[in-house]
Amino acid sequence: MSSLAESSLYQLTSTRFRLFLREPEALFWVFIFPILLAVGLGIAFRNRPADVLQVGATSPQLMQALNCDKGLSAALMDEAQGTHELATGRIVLLAINKGGAVAYKYDDTNPDARLARLLADRAVQKAAGQKEARQFSNDLVHETGARYIDFVVPGLLGMNLMGSAIWGLGFSIVEARQKKLLKRFVASPMPRWQYLASFLLSRLALLVIEVLAFLGFARLVFGVPFRGSLWELGGLCVLTSLSFSALGLLIASRAKTMEAASGLMNLAMLPMWILSGVFFSATRFPALIQPVVRALPLTAAIDALRGNMLQGMSLSQLGAPMAVLAAWLVVPFLISLRIFRWR
Amino acid sequence: MRGRNHLSGTSPEPRSLLTDDSDGHALSLSGLKKAFADVVAVDGIDLEVERGECFGLLGPNGAGKTTTIEICEGLTIPDAGSVTLLGLDWKTSAAELRQRIGVQLQETQFPEKLTVEEILRLFRSFFRRGTAVEETIRMAQLEEKRRARIGTLSGGQKQRLAMACALVGDPDLLFLDEPTTGLDPQARRHLWDLVDQLRSAGRTIILTTHYMDEAERLCDRVAIMDHGRIIALGTPQQLIASVGGDHVVEFAIGADAEKNLVDARKLTAIPGVRSHRVDAGQHQLSVVELHTTVPRIFSALAEMGLKPSEFRTHSATLEDVFVGLTGRNLRDE
To answer: How many Å lie between the alpha carbon of A174 and the closest alpha carbon of chain B?
Structure first.
């Protein structure tokens, strides 16, 4: 058996790969879903340019004065029409010319309307010749890396690495056990370590595609920053994926039915979805449970990924989360080797 | 030497010298016992299977056939007793044995989204030497399905694929666990033809079945199992002869009032009648010399004032052997 294509490790790995690619649902969850989630969150939490407030004015001079402020967009209308527009929310404020005076009609419980009132009055006073009492300048800050999307992309990446490793290993192994395929393999001369290794190898191959697709999308569409070394980021992804693969293996090592496996997987993943800081910082949880939160592999993974991507930290600065991940790799793997049920 | 050069495919190396210990048995079991929790599945089995033999373990579900065959396959560790295959022991030569046996298990479901060719190529990769994938596909008559996904195969085709996976390592010893259970009659016959070919090619085959016609048709020798023990062992002809009659006469008495009037002693006193038993209202007599015995049975019934509502005869089968030994029908289980 000299050629690679005839070796059992190659055959097992390529079989895994084929089975994954022939499963449309798996493709969706691994490749499409994280991107959809990123798009959804990106849209919901996008940093909008300062809004322009719609206002109404009853005279052309007044309209002109209001339009001088960049924050306002004024339209000319009579008082009756303006009142109607106010009531339907199309404008937030109506400036009524009353001879020399100006009356502002607005709802003072609406923050936008209160802002419009301030801007409108400033514009009107300025047009009437009022001068600023003090000089000032504006220094605007729109930094990438401080946005919500920048925060959430490493979180989603960690969550996706966890999901694909645990589901990928757990389901395939338990399904093979339930369908007596594991037993059939054990009855053949297949080296058992190669069966488990084929999962890790196919996982790593898929990881490359998965991470490139997701991070490439985040970079191109949202301009998410990569401040740390890309090689080190790749290394962190591999470590994360292997840790969760070991956890998936542990979950799958004895379960006999898909239902049991499914329950165990949710039991393992649900606390991490909530506690590990995918969508908001894990530091928000009370100090009492912080040791637990810190010890979770997903917390460690996301901390490390954020450290690399957002803060440009090197691996040597990420020792603590990497140690947590390594522990989650070694311990479950050793336990599952001991308790794995082949039939 | 074993009449199957046409199957040797791509194995240029000569077979291991161990295969040539022709005086050894293909399989030898002694004092085999296995219990699961408090259920005794195998209760002391001694058995020897010769090379080139097609050997059948016949018995109802729960008789311990599958446990026995899985102990032979090295999948289950017996509580007591010894297993020797091809002169080797599972404890010391597991890796060597795995290379040299072919196994088809009950209810293995191969991944539906793989093709016939892919799964065979996978299994072929586990064996150091064996038969080419194309050759195995041809043997299992799956040429047309070579690129079909396993999910699209019929029950019979799936079973032939399972057999192909067992054959792809060119095994010295082939284990088939209930190869035709759940198949329609045509698919069963198709699979029987395949086993016939393997037999005539000189392979050693050990199969389990709960179909007596299958055991009769396929096996050189049969062990009948019940409650974890072998209760009869021999060629199908020997076993059938042991029932004491070549034929079985069955009759039933229609009228309820007359059912208790059948006198078994008078029936067994008839020359040519070897035994009598009743099962669900059916009287079964094991008889020889049908042409002279049947008229005597009719007249004996007439003397008792009875009129049979049904009356038929058939040649004795392994089913009758089982019924004779256990008082139960195989198919009842």
So the answer is: 13
Chain A residue with CA closest to B74: the answer is: A187
Instruction: Count Cβ atoms within 10 A of the Cβ of residue B167 and give its class: 0-12 exposed, 13-18 middle, 19 or more buried.
Output: buried
Give A209 to chain B, closest Cα distance, Å: 22
Residue type, A330: V
Could you give the number of structural domains in chain A?
Answer: 2
Whether B291 contacts chain A with CB within 8 A: no
Burial of A259 (C-beta count, 10 Å sphere; 0-12/13-18/19+): exposed
For the domain that residue A79 is a member of, what is the CATH number?
Answer: 3.40.190.10
Mean pLDDT by 10 residues, chain A (343 residues): 78 92 85 84 69 88 88 90 90 88 90 90 86 78 72 92 91 92 94 90 90 90 90 96 95 92 94 90 90 94 95 93 96 92 85
B191-211 pLDDT, tens digit each: 999 999 999 888 999 999 988
Cβ atoms within 10 Å of B104's Cβ, excluding its own: 24
Q: What ipTM, to 2 d.p.?
A: 0.82
A135 found inside a domain: no
What is the model's pTM? 0.77
Which residues of chain B have a CB within 8 Å of the CB of A23? 113
**Encoded tokens for A228:** 């740390």
Same-domain check for residues A300 and A332: yes
Burial class (CB in 10 A: 0-12, 13-18, 19+), A71: middle
In a shared domain, residues A192 and A120: no
Closest Cβ opposite residue B113 in set A6, A22, A343: A22
Top residue of A4, A171, A184 to mutate, by most chain B CBs within 10 Å, is A184
Same domain, A274 and A309: yes
CA–CA separation, A124 and B274 (whole Å): 124
Q: For chain A, give the number of residues.
A: 343
In this structure, whether the domain defined by B5-239 belongs to CATH 3.40.50.300 is answered with: yes
User: Which residue of chain B has the CA closest to A181?
Assistant: B108
Q: Do A183 and B110 touch (CB under 8 A)?
A: no
Domain that holds residue A260: 7-45+144-339
Interface mutation vs chain A, best among B126, B133, B136, most A CBs within 10 Å: B126
